[in-house]
Amino acid sequence: MQNEFDVIVVGKGNAALCSALAAHDVGARVLILEAAAQDESGGNSRFAGGVMRFAYSSVEDLKKVTDITEKEEAETDFGTNTEEEYFDDLFRLTQNRTDLDLSDILVRRSLDTMVWLRSKGVRFSANYGRQSGLVNGRRKFFGRLPIEASGGGAGLVEYLDKAADKANIEIRYSTRTTSLIHEDGQVKGVRAVCEGKPVEYRAQSVVLACGGFEANPEMRARYLGPGWELAKVRGSRFNQGDGLKMALDIGAAPYGNWSGCHATGWDRNAPEFGDVNVGDKFQKHSYIFGLLINAEGKRFVDEGFDFHSFTYAKYGGEVLKQTGQFAWQVFDSKVKDLLRNEYRIKFVTKVSANTLEELAQKLEGVDPKAFLKTVNEYNANLNDVAFDHTIKDGKNTKDGVYPPKSNWAQALDKPPYDAYQTTCGITFTFGGLRTIADQGQVLDVHLNPIPGLFCAGEMVGGIFYFNYPSGTGLVSGAVFGRIAGTHAGEHALANRA
Length: 497
Hints:
The chain contains 13 helices and 21 strands. The chain is an alpha/beta fold. Helix 1 (14-25) packs parallel to helix 7 (152-166). The radius of gyration is 23 Å and the shape is globular.
């Protein structure tokens, strides 16, 4: 079995596959090492919803990515996500901490990268089901997310798998990389365990694209803080932080928000790790139209602060802070048709009632008297602005209601009532490695390049701080995966023996 290549890519999600394809494009011999068996492969990308946040100024830009008919164009307001709007969202959500070089590349190369993905066989479609609504008979998108990968994250991985197979890129499954081969100041390959047996793979370049430490409870507690070991894992059980540890072991520079992560509301009784047969459907993202209630029977966040795309990745952590690490999402029948399809899967923790008093008794773990007091005070202190779920409508609570609800604040008054119990589901961690932004090459702690070492995907530190705009992760993985793979391939060819 050949164990020498030009480029070794560790991981096999979206970023890793993009790295491998880009390295192959420049003429490198590429090997992908995947810790999971083939049926569980695909990293966190396989569990993603598949929405793609990229810069576009008009429907003409969208047509570069997917086919849009004349009828669709005439009947739909696709909105915009200009580079300026993209920057504004990214800076606002990260409190202006996002690395300027990384964010500049992410935003400005996002559309071109989407076109590149399409050239590799990835198919995209309009995201009608989750990010749009009918306004006066015309379809309108909101949240600046009109496009998704066909088949979601799993579909994206499947398309990229086919592209890798077409390129004859070799993949070795059930192979966990344990350390880097670091000789004379250069990375020359990796050590791994393949089906229980130690093995070495040699290469002039290594791209680490094997995720963060979200599936590792010890690292979560160490870096994110007490209680984070209790979070459910939304995605792959194989993202144990191995790539980060092996890079830090040879002196790579850590970078970014190591105490931060992407974490959402997740079904309270979902399994410990993601289920590839369910994908992202344990999530519960329609909380903006209802109330989030904790064990004390109180609200604890502004459910309507913004579209869920801009709050969901932060509010999972807020749920984890509550007594018992849970919260109930409570809705009345006025918004039933607005709830996303994940509220209608077979596996869901749900209770229903015809009165608020009846519902109060069914909310397991919640103080019923306090819950009724919270709802009654909320219902009595709302403005009379018209409700509109397609915009931030300004229908809010009056002074004195804490926390306020800034938008979509309708009274909870039309039975029947439904409530869904959620906990925190962690998606990925924000801390990563410091790189040369436009090359993907990893820097050491003295900010010198480590020859032969590159990284992509969740392992790139410095992009996300505190929060996260929905749909950015897959695009970031593709942008920086493509960059890392290209430069890893060029480095390998320049140093090929």
